[in-house]
C-alpha cells in the first residue's frame, strides 16, 4: 500500500510539472494584451446550436465554421469597432437530438450576454428548441431546418435563411419526373420531422405529376441494416428510391441497395447533399444519386467567390459544404440586427427585454445581400429566397443539374 | 410475396444473425462464469471494427502508407506488400487473416485489461457495482473513440470485392454474405468444441457451475475468467469488422444497438448457455429481417422484442437455458 501511495505521488507530481510547463508556454507570448484597449469593449455572444459530436456532424461542424468566418469578418469591421462590440460564439452541441437540443436551448437562455442563436439544424431539434427561445424572447435563426412546421408555429422570434420542404420536396419530384424521367419510386423516410415532411411533399408531387409510388416505408435515423428493406425494394423494381433523411443513415441504405444489385439512383434532399454521402458509400456506388438543396449552387452567387477564398484560407483542410454559407448568413443577419439595436438603443440595452424585442424587429426588417443571395424574411419568418437546385453525383462529386432560372 | 423474396430475406437474416451470434457469445460467456452482464461488450465490437479499419488502411491505403513510411522509413515495405495484398485472391486471403488476427488479439487483450482494472477489484462487491463499472467502461470507450479518432462516420475501404456468388431459389448470395455466414458458423463450431472438448473448456464449465468449488479443485479461476474475457471480445471484434465491411462505415456509437440486440439474443437463447446464444443470434436476425421485409422496417424491433417477451413469459430461462436459476 505504501509503495502504491508513493507511486501515485510521483505520478501526480509529474502531471503537475507537465501542466505547469504547458500553461507556462502558453502564457508567455503577448496575446493577453489585446483585451485592454482604450475604450471598453462589450462582448456580445451568439449561440451556435448544431450537431457537433453526434448526428449530422459534417454539417454541424460546417455551420460552425461558417459562423466563425462571419464573426471574424465582423470583428474586424469598422462598425464593430465604432460601437465597441466584440462578437463571440458559444457552442451548443445538440447532437441532432431533440432532448439534447432542448437542454442546449435552456443553457443558451440562461446566458445573459447572449443576443441570439444561429441554429438549430435538424428540424426535429429546431421545433422544440424554438419554444424555449420564444419563452425567453431570444432571437433564433435556423440555417438549415427545412420542415415547414417550424415557422407555422407563429413564434415571432423564429426565422430561417433556407427554403422549406414544401418547396424542396415538389422541386425534387419535378426534377426526378421531368428532367430524369423516373416514373416509379419507393419512398423511405427516417421518422424524423425533417425526413417525414420532405418525403411526404416529394411523394405528393410525384403522384400529381403522374408518377407511381410503389410503397412508402419508415425507418429509423439510427438504423444501419437496411438489407431486408432493400430486398423488398428490389423485388418491386422501382426506377428510383427517394430517401427523406440525413446522409449518415441514408448512405448506408443507398450502398446496401447498390450492393444488392439495384441500379437506379437514390434521391434525397439537402440532408444528403454532402460529400460524406459519397465517401460513406465508398465512392463508386453513389454515382448517379440525386439530391435537392436549398438556394443556388455556390458558383452562381456573386458573393460566394469571396467566401470560398476566405474559407480556404482559414480552413485549408476542409471542404465547403452546402450549408456552411447558410451558417455564415444566419450569423450575419444576427450581427446586423445587433448593429442596428446598438446604434438605436445603445450597446448596454442589447440584452434587456426592450433590446431583445428590438433585435427581433430588426431581423424582421432585414434587407441584406448575403453569400447565399438576398437575405430577407416574410411575415412567418421564412426566407424570401426559395430557390432549389438539383444535384447529381458525377465522378465522385455533386454537380448542379437543375438550376432555377437557368433551364 | 414470391418464394425468392422469402429466401432472400432469410439470407439477409442469417447474415445479420451471424453477427449477433458472434457478439452474443461474449455476453453469455461472461454471464455464465461471473453472473455479470458486461455492458462494455458492445464497445468491444466497436473497438474491433476500428482496429480492423486501422490495419486495413495501413496495409492497403496508398495515402496512409505514404504518410506512415515518410514518418517511419523502415515501414516502407508496406508499399510493396500492398500490391501483393490487393492483386491476387491469395493476397486477399492473407490480408484478411492478418486483419482479423490483429483485431481479435488487440480487442481480446483490451477485454482482459478491462476485466483486470474494472471488474476484478469488484468481484466480491455487491452485484450492482460491477454492472455500473461496466457501463462506465462503455461510456469511457465510446467517448475515447469520439475524441481521439473521429466524431464522424468513417468509410470502410472496399478492399473485399462484393460480387454475386451464387443463387438459391432465385435469391442471390454475395461474396461478403457468404464470408460472414461461413466464418461465423466456423468460429461458433470452434468455440463449441473448445468449451466441450478441451481441458481449459472443462475448467470454464466447472467455474461456471460453481467457481468456489472449482477453485478448491485447483482450477485457477482468474485464468479462466481472463480467457473468457479474451474470447468474448475477440469474437466481438470479428463481428465489428464484418459490420464495417457489410455496411461500409464505422462510427464510435456503432456498438450500442448491435450490442443491445446481441444481449437480447443471449437472453432469448438462455443467457449463460453458449449454444443458446448462437441460436438466439440467428433467430433474432431472421425474425428481424422477415419482420422488416413483410411488415415494415419500423416494426422490426417491435416484432423482435415482442418475441423475446413471449419467450420469457413461457420459458423464463430462455430457449435453451436451464429452468433452475436459483443458485445456493
Any idea what the shape of chain B is? globular
Q: Count of helices of chain A?
A: 14
State the distance separating the first and last CA atoms of chain A. 80 Å
Which oligomeric state applies?
A: heterodimer
User: In terms of structural class, how would the helical and strand content of chain A be classed?
Assistant: alpha/beta
Order of secondary-structure elements of chain B: HHHHHHEEEHHHHEHHH
Based on CA atoms alone, the radius of gyration of chain B comes out at: 20 Å
Largest interface (CB < 8 Å): A-B, 37 and 41 residues
Task: List low-pLDDT spans of chain A.
Answer: 20-38
Number of DSSP strand runs of chain A:
14
Give a written overview of the molecule:
The complex is a heterodimer of chains A (407) and B (328). By secondary structure, chain A is of the alpha/beta class. Chain A has helices at 2-27, 57-75, 78-83, 98-109, 123-135, 149-152, 165-179, 193-208, 227-236, 247-259, 275-279, 304-314, 324-345, 353-364; strands spanning 42-50, 85-93, 114-119, 139-142, 158-160, 184-189, 212-218, 240-244, 266-268, 290-294, 368-370, 373-375, 388-394, 397-402. Chain A is built from 14 helices and 14 strands. Chain A has a 7-stranded mixed β-sheet with strand order 7-6-8-9-10-13-14, sandwiched between helices. In chain A, helix 5 (123-135) links the parallel strand 3 and strand 4 (139-142). Chain A is globular and about 70 Å long. In chain B, 48% of the residues are buried. Chain B has 13 helices and 4 strands. The model of chain B is unreliable at 323-328 (pLDDT under 50). Chain B starts with a helix and ends in a 14-residue tail after the last helix. In chain B, the strands form 2 sheets. In chain B, strands 1-4 form a two-stranded antiparallel ribbon. In chain B, strands 2-3 form a two-stranded antiparallel sheet. Chain B is globular, with a radius of gyration of 20 Å. Chain B is mainly alpha-helical. Chains A and B meet through helix 9 and helix 10 of A and helix 1 and helix 12 of B.
Amino acid at each position: 500500500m505504501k509503495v502504491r501511495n508513493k507511486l501515485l505521488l510521483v505520478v501526480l507530481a509529474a502531471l503537475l510539472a507537465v501542466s505547469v510547463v504547458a500553461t507556462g508556454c502558453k502564457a508567455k507570448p503577448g496575446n493577453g494584451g489585446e483585451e485592454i484597449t482604450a475604450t471598453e469593449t462589450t462582448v456580445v455572444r451568439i449561440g451556435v446550436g448544431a450537431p457537433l459530436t453526434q448526428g449530422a456532424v459534417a454539417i454541424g461542424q460546417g455551420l460552425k465554421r461558417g459562423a466563425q468566418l462571419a464573426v471574424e469578418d465582423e470583428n474586424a469591421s469598422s462598425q464593430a469597432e465604432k460601437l465597441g462590440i466584440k462578437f463571440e460564439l458559444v457552442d451548443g452541441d445538440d447532437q441532432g437530438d431533440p432532448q439534447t437540443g432542448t437542454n442546449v436551448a435552456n443553457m443558451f437562455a440562461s446566458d445573459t450576454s447572449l443576443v441570439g442563436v444561429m441554429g438549430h439544424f435538424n428540424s426535429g431539434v429546431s421545433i422544440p428548441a424554438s419554444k424555449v427561445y420564444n419563452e425567453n424572447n431570444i432571437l433564433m435563426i435556423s440555417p438549415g431546418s427545412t420542415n415547414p412546421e417550424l415557422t407555422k408555429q407563429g413564434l415571432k422570434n423564429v426565422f430561417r435563411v433556407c427554403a422549406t420542404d414544401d418547396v424542396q420536396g415538389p422541386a425534387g419530384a419535378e426534377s426526378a419526373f421531368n428532367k430524369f424521367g423516373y416514373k416509379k419510386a419507393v419512398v423511405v423516410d427516417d421518422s424524423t420531422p425533417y425526413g417525414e415532411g420532405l418525403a411526404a411533399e416529394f411523394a405528393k408531387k410525384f403522384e400529381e405529376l403522374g408518377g407511381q409510388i410503389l410503397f412508402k416505408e419508415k425507418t429509423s435515423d439510427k438504423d444501419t441494416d437496411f438489407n431486408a428493406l432493400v430486398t423488398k425494394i428490389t423485388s418491386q423494381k422501382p426506377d428510383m428510391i427517394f430517401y427523406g433523411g440525413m446522409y449518415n443513415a441514408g448512405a448506408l441504405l443507398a450502398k446496401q441497395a447498390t450492393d444488392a444489385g439495384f441500379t437506379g439512383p437514390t434521391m434525397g434532399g439537402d440532408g444528403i447533399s454532402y460529400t460524406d454521402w459519397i465517401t460513406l458509400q465508398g465512392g463508386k456506388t453513389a454515382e448517379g444519386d440525386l439530391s435537392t438543396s436549398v438556394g443556388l449552387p455556390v458558383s452562381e452567387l456573386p458573393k460566394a467567390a469571396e467566401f470560398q477564398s476566405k474559407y480556404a484560407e482559414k480552413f485549408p483542410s476542409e471542404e465547403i459544404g452546402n450549408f456552411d454559407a447558410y451558417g455564415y448568413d444566419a450569423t450575419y443577419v444576427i450581427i446586423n440586427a445587433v448593429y442596428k439595436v446598438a446604434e438605436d438603443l445603445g450597446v448596454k440595452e442589447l440584452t434587456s427585454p426592450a433590446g431583445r424585442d428590438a433585435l427581433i424587429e430588426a431581423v424582421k426588417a432585414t434587407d441584406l445581400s448575403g453569400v447565399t443571395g438576398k437575405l430577407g424574411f416574410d411575415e412567418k419568418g421564412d426566407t424570401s429566397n426559395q430557390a432549389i437546385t438539383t444535384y447529381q453525383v458525377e465522378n465522385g462529386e455533386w454537380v448542379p443539374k437543375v438550376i432555377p432560372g437557368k433551364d | 410475396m414470391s418464394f425468392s423474396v422469402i429466401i432472400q430475406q432469410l439470407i439477409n437474416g442469417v447474415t445479420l444473425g451471424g453477427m449477433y451470434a458472434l457478439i452474443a457469445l461474449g455476453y453469455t460467456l461472461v454471464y455464465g462464469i461471473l453472473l455479470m452482464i458486461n455492458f462494455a461488450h458492445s464497445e468491444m465490437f466497436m473497438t474491433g471494427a476500428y482496429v480492423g479499419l486501422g490495419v486495413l488502411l495501413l496495409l492497403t491505403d496508398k495515402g496512409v502508407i505514404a504518410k506512415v513510411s515518410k514518418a517511419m522509413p523502415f515501414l516502407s515495405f508496406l508499399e510493396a506488400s500492398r500490391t501483393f495484398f490487393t492483386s491476387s485472391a491469395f493476397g486477399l486471403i492473407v490480408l484478411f487473416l492478418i486483419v482479423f488476427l490483429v483485431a481479435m488479439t488487440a480487442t481480446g487483450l483490451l477485454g482482459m485489461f478491462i476485466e483486470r482494472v474494472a471488474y476484478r477489484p469488484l468481484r466480491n462487491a455487491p452485484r450492482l457495482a460491477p454492472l455500473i463499472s461496466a457501463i462506465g467502461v462503455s461510456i469511457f470507450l465510446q467517448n475515447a473513440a469520439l475524441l481521439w479518432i473521429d466524431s464522424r462516420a468513417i468509410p470502410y475501404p472496399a478492399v473485399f470485392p462484393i460480387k454475386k456468388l451464387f443463387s438459391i431459389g432465385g435469391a442471390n448470395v454475395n461474396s461478403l454474405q457468404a464470408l460472414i455466414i461461413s466464418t461465423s458458423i466456423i468460429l461458433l463450431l470452434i468455440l463449441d468444441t473448445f468449451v466441450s472438448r478441451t481441458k481449459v473448456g472443462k475448467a470454464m464449465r466447472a467455474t461456471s457451475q460453481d467457481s468456489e468449488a472449482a477453485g478448491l479443485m485447483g482450477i485457477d479461476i482468474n485464468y479462466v475468467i481472463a480467457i473468457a474475457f479474451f474470447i468474448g471480445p475477440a469474437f466481438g471484434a470479428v463481428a465489428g469488422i464484418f459490420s464495417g465491411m457489410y455496411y461500409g462505415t464505422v462510427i464510435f456509437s456503432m456498438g450500442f444497438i448491435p450490442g443491445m440486440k446481441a444481449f437480447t439474443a443471449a437472453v432469448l437463447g438462455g443467457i449463460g448457455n453458449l449454444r443458446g446464444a448462437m441460436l438466439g443470434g440467428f433467430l433474432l436476425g431472421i425474425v428481424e429481417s422477415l419482420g422488416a421485409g413483410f411488415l415494415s422496417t419500423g416494426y422490426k424491433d417491435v416484432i423482435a422484442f415482442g418475441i423475446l417477451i413471449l419467450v420469457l413469459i413461457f420459458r423464463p430461462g430462455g430457449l435453451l437455458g436451464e429452468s433452475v436459476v436459483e443458485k445456493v
